[in-house]
Structure formats: structure tokens, C-alpha cells
Amino acid sequence: MKKAAVALIVLLLLVVCVWFIAIPKSLIADLIENSLSREYLYLKTEGVKKGLFYNFGAERILLKKKGSGRDSDDTLLVFSNVKGRLDFLSFFRLRPELRFHGSMNDGDVTGFVRLTGADSFMITAGNIRINGIPLFEPLGIYGDGILSGSFRVRNNSGELKFSVRDVNLKSASLSGVFLPLDLFHDIKGTVKMNSDNTVEVQSFAMTGTGVFARVKGTMQGNDMNMSLELMTDSSFALGSLFQMILEKYRVSPGYYLVPLKGGIPKGEGG
Fold first, then answer.
1. Could you give the CA distance from residue 127 to residue 168 in angstroms, rounded to a whole number?
2. Which of 33, 43, 97, 135 is buried most, with the most CB atoms less than 10 Å from its CB?
3. What is the mean pLDDT of the chain?
4. Which of 31, 57, 59, 51 is nearest to 43 (CA)?
5. Total-model pTM
6. Residues 81/87/88/91 CA torsion (nearest 10 deg)
7. Partners of residue 207 on adjacent β-strands
């Protein structure tokens, strides 16, 4: 019995010593940042600190999109006040993970980052205000709404699922095409990021009073090959300016097909 107690104490001391001596803060930052290192996306940590018994914190973790140079990289998402810990059960499964929680624009964010093998992490978010999120600004999308969803990367591909309620967006222009975003109050979508760096919009639906729209197609870098279908019913009041802009895209009464093709200039819209 004494031997078992001594062995347990030695094991605990070893575990504590490994954490405080063998694992520096820089290694924690590297583990987080190296969990997502793609041709076009990467993570950057700021203010990493070690806590007690395999806990850690970070002032911010940034999801960034690579540009032509390091100074031209775009920040897409910012996670603040991140707290996390090593998941011991994952070690026994031989797939060690960091689990974390934090905040973004007054909403809650939780997730995990796998430390070995192919890229693998997942983020789940809820009740996040989209006003001011950097991800939308290069597309010229401004306004507010409440975002919930998840983003998962595994085996060099990713999937984003999201919904936005209480939407209040400004109309925008994307590659010279007018987008009447102010008509919609609910948005839902699923987007896949493939290993060849193409982004596939599997579903993207927007609903408003008497109007429904969906977007489909692909993007690679800043090049789009997508289309917007817009459908209205008899309850929708089509203003004269709106009607004039969309007339050339009308396929049949109440149905419009708008091509979204070409490049997305940086900072377009707004």
C-alpha cells in the first residue's frame, strides 16, 4: 500500500515537473499555431500564459488569411480571453488534444485542437454579434445579427455550418453586382473548404418577408464562380429602383438568377 502511494506521489510530481519545466509557454503557442497551418489559413496566439496543472490562457487567438506578405495578412476572426487545458483522456486514446473556451463579440466560443497527426480542430460558437467581425468586411458586408455555428478542420479539409438570426445588414456590392442584403432577416449556410484550397458553398439560404434567396458555387482565393437565385412572392413589394437593377437578371416572374463571378477586390463594398 505504501509503495502504491509513493508511486502515485512520484507520478504526480513527474507530471507537475513536466508541465512547469519541460513545457514552456512558447511550446504551447507553437502547438496551437501549428494545429492549423494551411496554404491560406493559420492561427496566431497573443499573450499565452501557463496556469496550474496543464491549464493555460491566451489574451487572443487570431484566425488569419495569408496575403502577399506577412504585413498584408487579413485577420478573419478574433477569440478573446481564451482559457484551456490539456485533455488527459485524449492521451490514453493516443490523440492528445487541447480543449478551450473563450469569447467573441459578447458571444461564447468552445472547441478543441488536436496536437498530433493531420490538421484537426473544431470551434463551436453561439450568440455572437456579427457587427465588427473582420471576416465580413473584405466582402463589403456591414450590419448586425446574432451568429451561431461550428467550424471543423480535419484531414486537410474544413466545414463551416452557421445561422444568423435577427439580421440587419446593409445592401452591398460584390464584384460589381448589387446585393439587396437589407431584405433578409435570417441566414443559414454550410460551406466546405477542400484540400485543394477551393471553397464550396453547399448551401446558403436567406429569407425575408415575401423573398427567398440562395447562393451556390465555388471560390478559390479571391476568384468566384457562384450564382445567386432570388425568388419573390405576391406579398413582396418590389421597389422601382430594385426592379430596375434586377430586371436584366429576371428569368421568369418572381425569379432572378444573378451571376457572381470574377475576383473580389480587397476592401470592396461598404
1. 15
2. 97
3. 79
4. 31
5. 0.75
6. -130
7. 186, 212
